[in-house]
Predict the structure.
Amino acid sequence: MDYSGSAITQKIREHYNEPFEAAEEARLLAVDFLKSFNDKHIKLIDCPPHKRIFLFFLTRVIKTYSAIFCLCRQGYGQDTSPLLRSFLETLISAKYILHDPKSADKNAARFVEYKWVIFKRHLSESECDPASKKSDDFVENREQIIAKFEEFKKKYKIESDRALITWSGKSVKDMAKKIDRKLLEEYDSAFRLYSRFSHPSIIGDREYLNFENDILKLSSLPSFIGIVPNLKRAVNYLCDFLFVFDDLFLLGRKQKINDLVSKSTLIFNSEKFRNELPFEKSSLNLTKENLDKIRVQFEME
């Protein structure tokens, strides 16, 4: 259902006009960086593995950023959480690959070769499904997948399945810790919030419920919840990627990023927006005594 022209969506865009302008400026800056890169006419052969994999990461996160921006403008701030979680994990992987220049190409190669671990999982799932045994690509390439999987384990001296959970053999948190304290702190604070909406649990129920006058309303409508905090994090993550992009390909645009960071920080930390939370804090006051009086209905626009 399209709420782009609804009254609540219009109110959201008017109230958050400045954050949306900052977020759009970040998107346009990323586009400008891509143009600067294209103007260099860089050949693939001149890009070592760590630069190639970074370009893949960057392409993916710019698209993710655009999706987050669109959702926030439509009033679905809390629903950007799974995308932000993916965004942050990609940022951590990119920085982990690059954090030691001497091992950057080896890390990039390991990231790519990890696909055989993923294929092996798919193979195991396919072999348990009689319907896919004959036609599934993973089953048809069974011998190659198993051989490459064993080669991966031998090459990186993997003895436990726990070391196969991620491409690096380390947890996402441990990768962040290896990079720097700031990224670890971001992971610790953000991951719990993202998980609140990324998994099917009762945590976060307040964002979808409203109780007043003995009526419990369930709302799937656009809302103001989570827009500013999640948009702020998206802008910060994108700027982090642009800083790395500038360093790797000598674009000479670092001051542009610094200017954007300063401007967006002023907006998101202004008195109007700094106290916004990524979730609804108040709780529902439901008791056994008043259950017989409560009606349940869906909130309509």
Q: What stands out?
A: The mean pLDDT is 89. The beta strands are 209-212, 215-218, 295-298.
